[in-house]
Design a protein that fits this description.
The complex is a heterodimer of chains A (190) and B (182). Chain A has ten helices and no strands. Chain A has 190 residues and is mainly alpha-helical. The N and C termini of chain A lie far apart (49 Å). Chain B is an alpha+beta fold and 182 residues long. Classes of the chains: A mainly alpha (190), B alpha+beta (182). Chains A and B meet through helix 2, helix 3, helix 5, helix 6 and helix 7 of A and helix 2, helix 4, helix 5 and helix 6 of B.
């Protein structure tokens, strides 16, 4: 079933289509929600609400974006509400370590997992506006104009937020596997 | 000609490949002679690659919990059939004609009201062709003070009294008719 068929089936309230939608995009949305909010339980709830809202408003989907982009816009909006309600993101270190844990007999994988964990932890310390541009740019691989459209801000604002966010990450992870040592925006902007 | 500052402002679009053909050519010409900007492009590409890889590694083991999947599908069954599409198509089909019809009705009503209220004025046109227009009945009352002085012995006594005068008549827009006093 392609995207058009899927949307048509959803508009016809086909339960099979809803299941296919969840199967196709559930995990991907969950990972993005986790990267954004930093808590797996909350991410699961946000994804659940995303699907429910999507099904309720499927008649408004006009096919101007991909289904995933449409779902992600809903998810981003819900995550913002979550962030606003919570006021402060509580980062569950134990959960993240469990999620990214690798077999101990493979040291290189363990190092990579540790680096990922540190990166996710540093992301939690960014403001919401700066965290979301990092996620959209480097996790969702969205282009600048797509991020601007997704967030409803100008391209200049997106670039400015990216510049600041990467500078902050550089400060938070100065020696993290030389990740930002060679690539910090301070050097890029000079 | 593109300088370093202009190139840096377009760095992300250059790496994405979303510059227009003209700007892309100018950027390529600038890069051909600018080592610092070439290095910046390489750093941005490397940064994107590393961040993307690390972020994916940090989340790739996550999966939507089966209980959540079940809950979503169960909740979807309980969503009432709003038939939103037909509601939307109904409005998109009928909203404009309905709006035009209502607006036309209002305009016609307004014109009719004006027409008939104007006819009442014409009813007062006399046969000689002079427009006497509408009449207004008026009544005005006012008090007239009167002092009376009288001598009582060695005293002079003054008495103040008031007389009420009522005037009524008809006022025509062509000019007031003589006011009749009661």
């Amino acid at each position: 079933m392609n995207e058009d068929q899927l949307i048509t089936a959803l508009k016809g309230q086909d339960p099979g289509a809803a299941q296919e939608l969840v199967n196709a995009y559930g995990d991907r949305l969950l990972r993005s929600a986790f990267a954004l909010c930093g808590n797996e339980a909350d991410a699961q709830d946000i994804v659940q609400d995303t699907f429910l809202q999507a099904i309720r408003s499927v008649h408004r989907f006009r096919g101007r974006s991909t289904v995933y982009t449409w779902l992600h816009a809903i998810l981003l909006n819900l995550t913002r509400h979550y962030h606003r309600d919570r006021k402060r993101i509580v980062y569950d270190d134990e959960l993240t370590r469990r999620e990214v844990s690798m077999p101990e007999e493979n040291p290189s994988q363990l190092d990579a997992a540790t680096a990922s964990s540190a990166l996710l932890e540093a992301l939690r310390k960014l403001s919401w506006a700066h965290r979301e541009v990092i996620i959209l740019r480097y996790y969702e691989n969205m282009k600048i104009h797509e991020i601007a459209g997704h967030l409803g801000v100008s391209k200049g604002t997106v670039k400015s937020r990216l510049h600041y966010a990467i500078g902050q990450m550089h400060k938070l992870l100065p020696d993290e596997l030389n990740l930002f040592g060679a690539c910090g925006t301070e050097e890029i902007r000079q | 000609m593109m300088n370093c500052r202009r190139f840096q402002n377009r760095l992300h679009e250059y790496v994405e490949g979303t510059l227009s053909a003209g700007t892309q050519a100018a950027a390529d010409r600038h890069l051909a002679r600018c080592t610092a900007c070439r290095q910046a492009v390489g750093q941005e590409q490397q940064l994107a690659q590393i961040l993307s890889k690390r972020l994916r590694l940090g989340t790739e083991t996550l999966a939507l919990h089966p209980q959540i999947r079940r809950r979503i599908l169960k909740a979807l069954e309980s969503i009432p059939a709003t038939d939103g599409d037909s509601v939307i198509s109904f409005w998109s089909r009928f909203a404009r004609p309905l709006g035009i019809a209502v607006s036309s009705l209002l305009v016609v009503t307004f014109l009719l009201v004006n027409f008939f209220s104007g006819a009442r004025v014409h009813e007062t046109v006399r046969s000689d062709g002079r427009d006497i227009q509408s009449a207004v009945s008026i009544e005005v009352s006012y008090l007239v003070p009167t002092y009376k002085f009288s001598k009582e012995g060695n005293l002079v006594v003054d008495t103040l009294s008031y007389e009420t005068v009522v005037a009524s008549g008809t006022l025509w827009t062509g000019g007031p008719e003589r006011v009749r006093q009661k």
